[in-house]
Design goal:
By secondary structure, the protein is of the alpha+beta class. The protein is built from 8 helices and 5 strands. It has 3 domains: 11-31 and 102-190; 43-93; 200-239, no CATH class. This is Signal peptidase complex subunit 2.
């Protein structure tokens, strides 16, 4: 993965870099990427361009009067193709950034989005099983970009990949080392918590703090609102 830095204040840069990392990661796991959505969009776009170029050439070679009916038809076709491209991009392709098939046969479709002024990566994943009569499973994620970008704007692949491997079983199955690292980290934290109980000195400090708070509360109703060091100072002033 490239270590090129981006601006952490640009949502477009954060999203585009994250979007580009998805196919790089999944294809490295031997997912087979489908380019059908992109191919259809390119075909429609190039078709509209071809009509425009043809219209220009025959107008330049033959003149407007002899080709005006062809030009009128070309305008209609060009408009129709651009309308089809808009509908395809809006209703079919949408926010989809990746479609691929896992080594185990599931089809994974990933769409991403961001909200204005909110540095959160919203991901909608649709997993379709190869088995017949099985409804697609949808998984939604919302994670801050700070999980995989450092303060300098460098993309860090490991936490990004861990998010997807943990959330999507088809990805976790293809990349179990990411799941293993998460499990190991959780077990390490749990073991540390169990192996480091309060020391006697810490317990003594907690007991003294509790006794001081109790003394402050028994004085009057005003001191009951005070906590911590403020409550203890009030107790000393009453003794004086």
């Amino acid at each position: 993965m490239s270590q090129e830095k981006i601006s952490v204040y640009s949502l477009a840069d954060l999203k585009n870099t994250s979007d580009d990392a998805i196919p790089n990661y999944l294809n490295s796991l031997k997912f087979t990427q489908s380019h059908r959505l992109t191919d259809v969009r390119l075909a429609i776009g190039y078709g509209a361009l071809a009509v425009a170029v043809a219209c220009f050439v025959w107008d330049w070679k033959l003149g407007f009067d002899s080709t005006k009916y062809y030009s009128a038809a070309a305008v209609v076709v060009y408009t129709a193709l651009n309308g089809a491209l808009w509908l395809w991009s809006r209703n079919v392709e949408g926010a989809t950034v990746y479609v691929g098939t896992s080594p185990s046969g599931e089809t994974v479709s990933i769409a991403t989005s961001v909200e204005k002024y909110t540095p959160v990566y919203n991901v909608e994943i649709t997993v379709t099983s190869p088995k017949a009569n099985t409804a697609p499973k949808k998984i939604t994620l919302s994670r801050p970009f700070s999980e995989w970008f450092d303060s300098a704007g460098t993309f860090i692949a490991t936490p990004f990949q861990t998010v997807f491997a943990t959330a999507v079983p088809a990805i976790g199955q293809a990349d179990p080392k990411r799941l293993a690292s998460v499990s190991a980290a959780a077990q390490s934290v749990s073991a540390d918590a169990l192996e480091t109980p309060y020391s006697p000195a810490m317990l003594d400090m907690l007991a003294k703090a509790s006794a001081a708070d109790a003394g402050g509360v028994s004085g009057d109703s005003d001191s009951a609102a005070a906590t911590g060091p403020v409550g203890k100072k009030g107790g000393k002033r009453r003794k004086a």
